[in-house]
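Treating backbone geometry as a discrete language has practical consequences that deserve illustration. The sequence in question and its structure tokens are set out directly beneath this paragraph.
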Amino acid sequence: MKKGSGRRTRLETRLSSLDTPLFIIDASRTVQFFNQGCERILEWSADEILGQTCDYAVDVDADECESICNLLCPPPEVFEGSKSEVPRYLLARSGRTLPCVIRYTPLYDEFHKTKLVLGIIDRIEAPHTMPVASPPQQLHAELAALRLSLRNRFRFSTIIACNDAMQRVLRQLELAIDSTQPVHFWGEPGTGKEHLARVIHFESEQRRKIFVPLDCDTLPPLELKQTVTKILKRDFDESMPLEPGVLFFAHVESLSRDIQDLILSNFQSGTSQDKLRLITASSFSLADLLEQESILPEFYYLITTMEIKVPPLRERRDDLKMLAQHFLENENRYQEKQISGFAPGVLSLFQDYFWPANLDELAKIIQSAFQSTSELLITQESLPLRLKTGIDARMLGPALPATIKPLEETLHQIEKEQIQLALEQTKNNRTEAAKLLGLTRAKLYRRMELLNISLDGKSQTG
């Protein structure tokens, strides 16, 4: 054995036995070292963690090795050579939340490029004493704290919600998860209604069955009816190897009355009620359709047993920065490139925008910015043009409403302007001006006198 190799082995043995939680991640973000101190507080063995790749993204699933590794991942700027002390909320295997600071130190190769990153975990007993980091790192830590809090309080963490209206939605979701009754979501396009429906499914006892989404706007009526009939009659084939647990209708406002009747007959008879759950979504309140008789009253009352209104993004301004960080970190997953947050001014621009397509638009904007930048932060320059033009248009404000004047006054003003223009073009030749205006010369004189226009074409003020 070479002398250097023996020294390295002894050093690793000593570091492994330390009580201080210490780990090492290489430049490809693979965990290379995980000592006994880490094993003790995180409750995962080194054998399970070593060789795992981490992404700069918050995960809060205590049963997943990937979640633990992602919470240890250094910010991208550390791989560029910056030492960093980062507030973090780690998660032990037992589900305990661990407020801490991780001190990251880059270790260089002979070309002064970061080869390894050493991480030392320092537990913090009182979360309110967590140090303040740079804005991107602080937002990353706050997102982790929020998701852990939502997981502990509501059993789910993939919904980002600080806003009061969304907190009400979460409480309604809790009730829906513990029930088997139909649920109806309504709200503007892009507000995340299908995601909320999937949360109900995957947190309920139906999670082992499949979630079947059907879009009433895009599926041809005949195909939609055939699919619904197969599911309700349990006539499955190889295209549906598992039993459906939830039948989700997006844009249920477009569902034809014959399919409404088909669903009614199955659920009212009890044929499907015990085996299949009905969840629907619409872009507006279905009470409007009930008044217009576009929906069968019995179908309306069936699907709106539990009704949840989902607020648009413009009414969730206090959620916006967390949602932006959440979507950004989703882009980091399984990518070589990692981005830690947003440059100064970007989140302020997001607050100035109206977000007509809601969460879907925010996700696409961040995806586009992620793809177009090579920086460690999303900058204003990397934002797509459609966002910038939308903000500019909003800053201009709405057009001023036209002033309405008495009709007689308006007609006189137009007539005066046309006569003066004709006189100007004909150099005060009243005969030619009358021809341009389609008048006789005598009628032109009378109109000029009535409108107080002098013979030289100028308006008289006296």
Observations:
- The CA atoms of residues 320 and 351 lie 7 Å apart.
